[in-house]
Design goal:
By secondary structure, the chain is an alpha+beta fold. 36% of the residues lie in helices and 17% in strands. It has 4 helices and 4 strands; from the N terminus they run H-H-H-E-E-H-E-E. The chain has a 4-stranded antiparallel sheet with strand order 2-1-3-4. Strand 1 (99-108) and strand 2 form a beta hairpin. Helix 3 crosses helix 4 (125-138). The longest helix is centred in the first third of the chain and has 23 residues, at 14-36. The radius of gyration is 26 Å and the shape is globular. The model is unreliable at 24-40 (pLDDT under 50).
């Protein structure tokens, strides 16, 4: 069997030439149309982020309805994600994350952020800044239920999982990471 490729047949008649040009023109037109379609990926991502992040219920005075520390932590993770929705990655995080930042923070009985500090980092200054900024931007938080307070405060820690594009998910509400 001959494995050499055959050269393309050239059109022999004007009719075949016109037909080939028309077919090529349709392909080129389709490529140009695809290139000129409005880029809505960021808009689509932002809209998806808004719909995926649920609103958490509070009482009339703004107290979280959570009954456990983990439940309150999920409330705050959702709040942080809501406020910073353009920085949130809404799909499954990649297998090898760019960065994982763990922050310990304290919230007082009124939902105010009292203190925050980085517990773990890979020295990615941009990710550290983004994580701390997203936490501060989301404050004040829903008030913690009085039963969860110790000396008028609650201490929590959260992990920010960063993809290569700089967007994050919070471990408390994150989707499962990709396998590869």
């Amino acid at each position: 069997m001959n494995t050499r490729t055959r050269p393309a047949r050239l059109p022999t008649s004007p009719r075949q030439l016109v037909r080939r040009l028309a077919i090529s023109g349709v392909g080129v037109a389709a490529m140009l149309a695809a290139c000129s379609a409005p880029e809505s990926t960021q808009e689509t991502r932002d809209e998806l982020a808004r719909t995926l992040i649920e609103q958490k219920k509070t009482t009339e005075d703004g107290t979280s309805t959570a009954t456990t520390v983990d439940g309150y932590k999920v409330d705050l993770a959702k709040r942080i994600s809501q406020v910073n929705f353009t920085s949130v990655y809404v799909e499954r995080p990649q297998a090898l994350l760019r960065s994982v930042i763990v922050i310990k923070y304290i919230v007082d009985g009124d939902g105010n952020l009292v203190k925050s500090e980085i517990l773990r980092s890979n020295r990615d200054k941009h990710a550290e800044s983004s994580a701390l900024g997203s936490l501060k931007t989301a404050a004040p938080f829903p008030k913690p239920p009085p039963a969860l307070l110790k000396q008028g405060r609650i201490e929590l820690s959260e992990s920010w999982l960063f993809n290569n594009d700089g967007r994050f998910q919070l471990r408390s509400v994150a989707l499962a990471q990709m396998d590869r």
